[in-house]
Write a structure and sequence with these properties.
This protein is 36% helix and 13% strand. The chain is of the alpha+beta class. Strand 3 and strand 4 (67-71) form a beta hairpin. Helix 2 (91-105) packs antiparallel against helix 3 (112-124) and helix 3 packs antiparallel against helix 7. The chain is elongated, with a radius of gyration of 24 Å.
Length: 240
């Protein structure tokens, strides 16, 4: 038995949901059309390879190889691939990315600007708990090895390690450190402005809102090509 990746097909128009007068969906002929599609695909494959239709989805967002999102009939999302749910992103970035992709799959790319503005408002108004802004890093090296690499210019300074060094605790590889970037009188490297999330004071918030708004805009810019493509008017085919 050989395990292979799934293949996604765009089904014929008559196999997709249609709205009727009462607003309900109908799939007249959909089952038979999907069955015909399955049989036609099977004919194109070598003997012994069977085609099974696991599920139908309302939409698919393909970012790059092995990185995509699926929109279920119930409006839920399934996200595959590290590029779309990277642990290197803060939680607010992951949430924004998921909501942005869902808008694209729902055919509402024009709503992304309002989504972005809403996230900025929440950042500037301090509406989120610090867990939405904090980042959690796992230490890969011992603190002594980190010091040695810094001394030998073998790596750059990192917030998690710098916090570990001044904490007074005996951190070791595999330990995790959660931190956020605090506001400072002047612009400094992120590792100098990092502060343990456990030290965050909800009554005296000190997160660097401009830093986090900039992170939001970096994410918007990264996917701007895809959002612009989704917003572009579809070219109609001409009957000859």
């Amino acid at each position: 038995e050989v395990d292979t990746d799934g293949i996604y097909f765009v089904p014929p128009v008559d196999a997709t949901p249609r709205r009727v007068g009462n607003g309900k969906e109908t799939r007249r002929g959909a089952a038979s059309t999907i069955d015909e599609l399955q049989k036609a695909l099977a004919k194109e494959l070598p003997p012994g390879i069977d085609v099974e239709i696991d599920e139908q989805f309302d939409a698919m967002f393909s970012y790059k190889a092995k990185n995509y999102a699926l929109l279920t009939k119930d409006g839920d999302m399934i996200i595959k691939g590290g590029a779309l749910k990277s642990r290197g992103l803060e939680k607010f970035q992951r949430v924004f990315l998921e909501e942005m992709i869902k808008l694209i799959m729902e055919g509402k790319p024009e709503a992304i600007a309002d989504l972005r503005n809403g996230f900025e408002r929440k950042i500037r108004n301090g509406e989120w708990n610090i867990d939405m802004l904090m980042k959690t890093d796992t230490l890969q090296d011992s603190l002594d090895k980190y010091r040695s690499k810094i001394a030998g210019s073998a790596r750059n300074r990192a917030a998690a390690y710098e916090l570990a060094l001044v904490s007074g605790r005996s951190y070791k590889p595999g330990d995790q450190i959660s931190y956020y970037i605090k506001a400072t009188p002047k612009k400094v490297p992120a590792y100098e402005a990092a502060k343990l999330a456990s030290d965050f004071d909800t009554q005296n918030r000190d997160e660097n809102v401009d830093y986090y708004v900039a992170k939001l805009d970096e994410l918007v810019k990264k996917f701007s090509g895809l959002t612009e493509a989704a917003s572009a008017p579809k070219q109609e085919s001409l009957a000859l």
